[in-house]
Design goal:
Distance between the termini: 64 Å
Strand content: under 5%
Largest sheet: none
Oligomer: single chain
Number of helices: 13
Shape: flat
Number of strands: 0
Structural class: mainly alpha
Length: about 270
């Protein structure tokens, strides 16, 4: 034990250990895993591709479900479709992701034998975890899109667009939908940051070899360099994703860019 503590530097003062770790992190060296003895960065790179695939699939499922559902619910307010969309949002937000994952496994893997339970051998292994991630995100996004579009559709410029004789489809897709995107993009940025940093619960349930499962294994084995590297990576991902979201505001709504320019001229 004394020899191991000396080798990994645990006998040094805290400020020295923190300084050495920070200096290494700036250079891309996140330390060495206690469990495997290999560099933390190499383990992260090997797992990142799996998490990117899972996150991308989850976002696609969420958008495919949420966009048409939220738009139709807003256009047909107080109809049966709107009621069904709001019920879906309520149930989807209330169901824990791990419970939904087990329900999907029970139905499609155990009862129907259509899909595999866990692993990452083929594209079929992607369907259940991506669906679980996507449905949870779709519940939130569809409700948010509905509320945002209802607010936009009550504005004066929507009546002006219809008075100009524009087709209803163009009014909804070009004017209402685009102006309702800002809150949706904000929530999507947070969701994507969570997925890219590792959907821990879903990767654990489906034994998916991504960053989230690596984090759980590191916690179970007290592999602190891996945990530190994961926290640093997750924080960086959230900062970068939110930066991209902020930049995208000016493309979605040109009024934001014009407002900033007006403020600069006023100064």
């Amino acid at each position: 034990m004394d020899k191991l503590r000396e080798e990994i530097g645990l006998n040094d003062p805290f400020i020295v250990r923190y300084g050495l770790w920070t200096y290494g992190a700036v250079r891309g060296d996140l330390g060495t895993s206690y469990r495997t003895g290999g560099p933390v960065w190499d383990q992260r790179v090997s797992r990142l591709w799996s998490t990117l695939i899972l996150a991308g699939g989850g976002v696609v499922v969420a958008l495919v479900v949420a966009l048409p559902l939220g738009m139709l619910a807003a256009v047909r307010q107080d109809s049966l479709l709107d009621l069904a969309a709001r019920l879906f949002s309520l149930v989807g937000a209330a169901i824990p992701s791990y419970w939904l994952a087990y329900l999907l496994i029970l139905l499609f893997a155990v009862q129907l034998h259509w899909l595999p339970v866990a692993g990452s051998v083929s594209w079929q292994h992607l369907i259940l975890p991506c669906t679980t991630l996507g449905l949870g995100g779709a519940a939130l996004l569809s409700r948010l899109l509905r509320s945002s579009m209802l607010e936009v559709m009550g504005n004066e410029y929507m009546r002006v667009a219809r008075a100009k004789g524009l087709p209803e489809r163009q009014v909804i897709l070009v004017h209402a939908f685009r102006n309702a995107l800002i809150p949706l993009v904000t929530v999507m940025g947070n969701m994507l940051g969570f997925l890219l940093s590792g959907a821990i619960v879903i990767e654990t349930v489906f034994a998916w070899p991504g960053l989230g499962r690596m984090m759980i294994d590191a916690i179970n084995f007290r592999d602190y360099p891996v945990i530190q590297g994961f926290v640093l990576f997750a924080g960086t991902v959230f900062v970068l994703v939110n930066l991209v979201v902020d930049v995208s505001y000016t493309w979605i709504d040109p009024r934001i860019r014009l407002a900033d320019s007006a403020q600069d001229q006023g100064r």
